[in-house]
């Protein structure tokens, strides 16, 4: 029977650590500030942004909110980012994705000052991660590393299989796992015999966005299974990429959906905001 990795509890612990750090900085007259930019009316993005602002309130981080209409032009958005880059009182900038169709996400991300890029999406930070240098790391994979470490799951020397190669999760996850001295395999939709590769994993990261795709025949007995999926099942109920009930008996550890990886993303964003503020002060 698997140990359930409690992302809610671990993320709460991280948010409390951030809260303490923010309070200490406040005592010294330093306010940590995150600018949150949302363009358009994607309902899921509104929920994410609301949760991010709530986490700011909890941790004591000041949040500045910019909710722009879907008709905003890319130049207008770039002008706002330029202003936030220049503002000395802004430590972190977050532009919620996806952006409306008429915008070029790569160009927008590139416009954010890498030192304020608390999402870790800027090519500069992606590059730093890939050559093992300090920088901002995408919050979801950074959160998964924390889940594993704080659950006592060793990565060094382990076979780690990542299914999904997105820029936000799969690729940075591979870099972070390498940094922890795991042996890393990245799988994707063209991987031959996916089941056989997954069954080699001591740690399996499932990030493909297909409801309950990973059944017990993908899992080695005792493996740690990390579910990054946020999917809907046949009854429209929130579920992950892993068939939890099917895998539970066989796995060594497993993250539930909801309450596993999800809450970690926001906790790591808060952590990155404090890191951005501290880095700015040291410059
Ligand atoms: N959209 C989905 N996930 C994320 C995220 O982690 N950051 C931002 N900015 N947008 C997202």
Give your account of this protein's structure.
It contains 10 helices and 11 strands. It is an alpha/beta fold. The strands form 3 sheets. The protein has a 6-stranded parallel beta sheet. Strands 3-2-4 form a 3-stranded parallel beta sheet, sandwiched between helices. A two-stranded antiparallel sheet has the order 9-10. The model has no long low-confidence stretch (mean pLDDT 98). The protein binds guanine. The site of guanine has 7 residues, from β4.
Q: What is the fold's blueprint, element by element?
A:
Blueprint: E1 3-4, H1 7-27, E2 33-39, H2 43-59, E3 62-68, H3 74-86, E4 92-95, H4 105-111, H5 123-130, H6 139-150, E5 159-163, H7 170-179, E6 183-187, H8 194-198, E7 203-206, E8 224-227, E9 231-232, E10 238-239, H9 244-247, E11 253-254, H10 262-282
Parallel strand pairs: 1-11, 2-3, 2-4, 5-6, 5-7, 7-8, 8-11
Antiparallel strand pairs: 9-10
Helix pairs in contact: 1-10, 2-10, 6-7, 6-10
This protein binds guanine.
Residues 94-97, 119, 139, 265 line the site of guanine.
List keywords for this structure.
alpha/beta, binds guanine, 3-stranded parallel beta sheet, globular, 10 helices, 42% helix, 11 strands, 283 residues
In short:
The protein is of the alpha/beta class. Helix content is 42%, strand content 16%.
Cofactors and ligands: guanine
Q: Which structural class is indicated by helix and strand composition?
A: alpha/beta
Which residue ranges are poorly predicted, with pLDDT under 50 across at least 5 consecutive positions? none
The description of the largest β-sheet is:
6 strands, parallel
């Amino acid at each position: 029977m698997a140990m359930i990795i409690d992302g809610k509890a671990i993320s709460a612990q991280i948010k409390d650590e951030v809260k303490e750090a923010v309070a200490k900085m406040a005592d010294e007259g330093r306010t940590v500030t995150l600018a949150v930019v949302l363009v358009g009316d994607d309902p899921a993005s509104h929920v994410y942004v609301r949760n991010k602002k709530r986490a700011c309130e909890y941790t004591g981080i000041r949040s500045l909110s910019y909710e722009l209409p879907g008709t905003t032009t890319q130049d207008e958005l770039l002008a706002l980012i330029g202003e936030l880059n220049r503002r000395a009182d802004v430590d972190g900038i977050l532009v919620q994705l996806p952006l409306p169709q008429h915008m070029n996400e790569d160009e927008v991300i590139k416009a954010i000052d890498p030192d304020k890029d608390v999402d870790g999406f800027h090519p500069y930070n992606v590059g730093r991660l890939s050559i093992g240098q300090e920088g901002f790391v995408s919050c979801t994979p950074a959160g998964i590393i924390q889940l594993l470490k704080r659950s006592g799951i060793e990565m060094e020397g382990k076979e780690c299989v990542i299914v999904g190669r997105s820029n936000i999760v799969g690729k940075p996850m591979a870099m972070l796992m390498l940094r922890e001295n795991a042996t890393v395999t990245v799988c994707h939709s063209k991987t031959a015999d996916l089941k056989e590769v997954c069954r080699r994993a001591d740690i399996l990261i499932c990030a493909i966005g297909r409801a309950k795709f990973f059944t017990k025949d993908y899992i080695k007995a005792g493996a740690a299974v990390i579910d990054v999926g946020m999917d809907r099942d046949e009854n429209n109920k929130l579920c992950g990429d892993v068939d939890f009930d099917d895998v539970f008996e066989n796995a060594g550890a497993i993250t539930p959906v909801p309450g596993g990886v999800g809450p970690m993303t926001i906790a790591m964003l808060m952590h990155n905001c404090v890191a951005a503020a501290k880095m700015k002060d040291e410059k």
